[in-house]
Amino acid sequence: MSALSIVYDLTRPISSGMPVYPGDPPVQITRMFSPPWQVSALALGSHSGTHLDAPRHRFAHGPGIDDIPPKRFIGQGIVIDVRDYPANAPIEPTVLAGYHIWPGMMVLFRTGWDDFWGSDHYFRHPYLSAALANTLVQQQVGLVGIDALSVDSTVDGSDAAHVRLLGQSV
Prior knowledge:
- The protein is an alpha/beta fold.
- 10% of the residues lie in helices and 19% in strands.
- The protein contains two helices and seven strands; from the N terminus they run ββββββαβα.
- The chain has helices at 130-138, 160-167; strands at residues 28-34, 37-43, 77-81, 90-91, 106-110, 127-128, 143-146.
- β1 and β2 (37-43) form a beta hairpin.
- α1 (130-138) runs parallel beside α2 (160-167).
- The longest helix has 9 residues, at 130-138.
- It starts with 27 loop residues before the first strand and ends with a helix.
- The mean pLDDT is 93.
């Protein structure tokens, strides 16, 4: 008997005026018609909408997204439900209790903050604590994801989770 394979598309559509990290360029899509052709001009930052961070996002000499093969983003993983965390709260390593985590697996955190998409409250999402980021690195996970604007606090502008994860190419 073979294992069940499921593909989850976690992306959000790109649209003009969509939420972006404070200070990032706004997303602008301009339709340009030149009958019979239709073309759109896109202006956006590389971290607009659903995106991946490569080490170069934080470390100037780290590998960029173009250096990472697509197969790196396909694999086994788990979704950890952390919807009980309040606004701008650090998610602690205790959320991993009871889960079997092995080297190379993908760990995704479901905060439920996607419910606030398009509102000011969206920017006050829970985030990974430095201790949780450190624990994930120690457990040698291959990828970490979150359904919020950042793995760090957007309100506080922190970067501890980014530094620890990207510093180890997670």
